[in-house]
From TrEMBL:
InterPro entries: Cyt_P450, Cyt_P450_CS, Cyt_P450_E_grp-I, Cyt_P450_sf, Insect_CytP450_Detox. Keywords: Endoplasmic reticulum, Heme, Iron, Membrane, Metal-binding, Microsome, Monooxygenase, Oxidoreductase, Transmembrane, Transmembrane helix. This is Cytochrome P450. It comes from Microctonus aethiopoides. The keyword Calcium does not apply. GO terms for cellular component: endoplasmic reticulum membrane. Belongs to the cytochrome P450 family. It is found in: Endoplasmic reticulum membrane; Microsome membrane. One of its GO terms (molecular function) is heme binding.
Length: 505
C-alpha cells in the first residue's frame, strides 16, 4: 500500500510539473509588454524544425519576418525565454558595447557529463572563458597559422592528388562527404598530431570517431539534443552523455598519450597540440589541464567536420554554377602561383583579394552557423521594440538569438539577396555594408576564435583544386538549393554533387 501511495504521489507531482511547465511556456510572453510569436506546448517556437516541416534556415527566415518592423520580439526555445534580435544597432549594444551583460553562449551539455565538449572555448562561461580565451588567442594569430600552413597544405595536396588519380570518382562527387574527409585529415594533423588520408582509407578510426562525435541526426542523438535543451537538469540527474563512451575514451586516450609522449621526449610538431602545450606552460596563475587541452582540440571536430566542410560544399556549388566567377578566381590563383613555380605560400594565399570576395559572398548566402546566441547574466533594459511599446527589461537567464542567415538575406541590407555577387565585397562596396549585418563567424569578443584557421584551410583546398580542375555540375545537381529538413544544420537535400574535370581535358 505504501509503495502504491508513493507511485500515485509521484505521478501527481510529475503531472503537476508538466502542467506548470506548459502553463509557464504558453503565458510567459503574453504577461510581458513585448511583441512575441506563437508558442507550441513543449517545443516552444521551434516546432516546425523538430517536426521536420521546415529546415533550420527556413525557420530562422520565417521567424525573422514575424513582426516585420520590430527591433526584437519574444519566442520560446522549448521552455527558455528567447529574444530574437533583428536590429543591427541592438546587436552591437548586446554583443559588443555591453558585452559584460551577455557574455556567454548557451550550452546543451553538462560539464560533469561531457567534459570534452563542455570544456571547449565555445561552451565555457564567464571568468573561465576569459582565462582560456586569453590563453588560446595567441595560438590563432597569423604567425601561428603560418606555423601550421604546411601541415594543412599537405592534406590539401593529398586530397587533390587522389582526385587526379581517380578520374571516374572525380566525375561525380558528393561534396559534403568529400570535404568532410578533407577537414577530418586537417583536424587530425593540425589538432591531434596524427596523419590520415580519409579519401584513400575511407574507414579509418579517426574519421569514424569524428563522424560519431559530430552527428546530430541519429534518433538517439536527436533525443539527447532536444532533452539537453528542454530539460538540462533531468539529463544531468539521469547521467546522460552526449558522446558515446567509446568515442569519449578514444579522444581522451589519444590526446593524453600524445601529450605525455611529447613531454617525455621533448617532441615539437607544428600543430595545435603543441600550441596548447605551450599555452599550458606560459600562463602563470592560469590552470590548463589535460581535459582543457582535449576540449580545445575537440572543438576543431565540432567546427571542422560540419561548419567548415559545409562552407566548402556550398562554395564549390556556387562556383560550379557561376563559370565567370570560377574563371576569374582561377586566373588570380594562376597569376600568383606562376611567381613561385606553381606553389602558393601562406603570405600570397592570404592576400588573394578576389578569393576573399568570393568566400565572403558564399558565407553571406550560406553561413554555416545559421544563428548564434548570447545568455543574459545581468538584468538590463532594451529600448521599445515598436512604437507604442515601452522599454523591456531583459531578465537574467534569458537568451538572445542573432539570426545570421536571415540578416544575410534581408534585402534592406543586401539588395537582391539571393544573387551570388562577389562584387558586394570589393573595396568600393564593402564599406557600404551596414555593420553587424554580416557576421558569418559571429560578432564581438565571442566571435569564432578559429576564423583564421577555417579561412586558411578553405583557401588552400580551393587554390589547389582550381589549379588542377574545372568544377562543373552533374546530372544530380540543381542550381537552386533545397535545404534538408532532417538536418539541424544547413545542408542540401540529397547532397551536393559536382564533377571535377582536369583542366587539360
Amino acid at each position: 500500500m505504501e509503495h502504491l501511495t508513493i507511485i500515485i504521489l509521484s505521478i501527481i507531482i510529475g503531472a503537476l510539473g508538466v502542467i506548470y511547465f506548459i502553463y509557464r511556456q504558453m503565458t510567459f510572453w503574453s504577461s510581458r509588454e513585448i511583441p512575441h510569436v506563437k508558442t507550441i506546448p513543449i517545443i516552444g517556437s521551434l516546432g516546425a524544425v523538430f517536426l521536420r516541416q521546415k529546415s533550420f534556415p527556413e525557420l530562422i527566415q520565417d521567424l525573422y519576418l514575424k513582426h516585420k518592423d520590430a527591433k526584437y520580439y519574444g519566442m520560446m526555445d522549448f521552455n527558455t525565454p528567447t529574444i530574437m534580435l533583428k536590429d543591427p544597432d541592438l546587436i552591437r549594444d548586446v554583443c559588443v558595447k555591453n558585452f559584460e551583460l551577455c557574455p556567454n553562449h548557451r550550452s546543451f551539455v553538462d560539464e560533469a557529463m561531457d567534459p570534452i565538449i563542455a570544456k571547449n572555448v565555445f561552451s565555457l562561461r564567464d571568468e573561465r572563458w576569459r582565462e582560456v580565451r586569453s590563453t588560446l588567442s595567441p595560438s590563432f594569430t597569423a604567425s601561428k597559422m603560418k606555423f601550421m600552413f604546411e601541415l594543412v597544405s599537405k592534406c590539401s595536396e593529398d586530397f587533390v592528388q587522389y582526385l587526379v588519380d581517380h578520374p571516374e570518382m572525380a566525375k561525380s562527387l558528393d561534396m559534403k562527404d568529400a570535404y568532410t574527409r578533407y577537414t577530418n585529415d586537417v583536424i587530425a594533423t593540425a589538432a591531434f598530431g596524427i596523419s590520415v588520408n580519409s579519401l584513400k582509407n575511407r574507414d579509418n578510426e579517426f574519421y569514424l570517431r569524428g563522424k560519431d562525435a559530430t552527428s546530430f541526426n541519429g534518433i538517439l542523438r536527436t533525443i539527447k539534443f532536444i532533452a539537453g535543451r528542454a530539460m538540462p537538469r533531468v539529463m544531468r540527474l539521469m547521467g546522460f552523455k552526449f558522446l558515446s563512451q567509446d568515442t569519449d575514451k578514444f579522444f581522451h586516450e589519444l590526446i593524453t598519450e600524445t601529450v605525455k609522449a611529447r613531454d617525455e621526449n621533448k617532441i615539437i610538431r607544428p600543430d595545435m597540440i603543441h600550441l596548447l602545450m605551450q599555452a599550458r606552460n606560459n600562463r602563470a596563475g592560469i590552470s590548463i589541464t589535460i581535459d582543457d587541452i582535449i576540449g580545445q582540440a575537440f572543438i576543431f571536430f565540432l567546427a571542422g567536420f560540419d561548419t567548415s566542410s559545409t562552407f566548402m560544399t556550398f562554395l564549390s556549388h556556387l562556383l560550379a554554377f557561376n563559370e565567370d566567377v570560377q574563371d576569374k578566381l582561377r586566373n588570380e590563383i594562376d597569376e600568383v602561383a606562376q611567381e613561385d613555380g606553381g606553389k602558393i605560400n601562406y603570405d600570397k594565399l592570404v592576400n588573394l583579394k578576389y578569393m576573399e570576395m568570393v568566400m565572403n559572398e558564399a558565407l553571406r548566402l550560406y553561413p554555416p552557423a545559421v544563428v548564434t546566441d548570447r545568455v543574459c547574466v545581468q538584468s538590463f533594459k532594451l529600448p521599445s521594440s515598436l512604437p507604442g511599446y515601452n522599454e523591456f527589461t531583459v531578465e537574467k537567464g534569458m537568451i538572445f538569438w542573432l539570426p545570421i542567415y536571415a540578416l544575410h538575406h534581408d534585402p534592406k541590407y543586401f539588395p537582391n539577396p539571393e544573387k551570388f555577387d562577389p562584387e558586394r565585397f570589393n573595396d568600393d562596396n564593402k564599406s557600404n555594408i551596414i555593420p553587424y549585418t554580416f557576421m558569418p563567424f559571429g560578432i564581438g569578443p565571442r566571435k569564432c576564435i578559429g576564423e583564421r584557421f577555417a579561412t586558411m584551410e578553405t583557401k588552400i583546398i580551393l587554390a589547389h583544386l582550381l589549379q588542377k580542375f574545372i568544377i562543373k555540375p552533374t546530372d544530380k545537381s540543381t542550381e537552386k538549393i533545397e535545404f534538408d529538413k532532417k538536418n539541424f544544420n544547413i545542408a542540401a537535400k540529397g547532397g551536393t554533387w559536382l564533377s571535377f574535370h582536369r583542366r587539360e581535358e
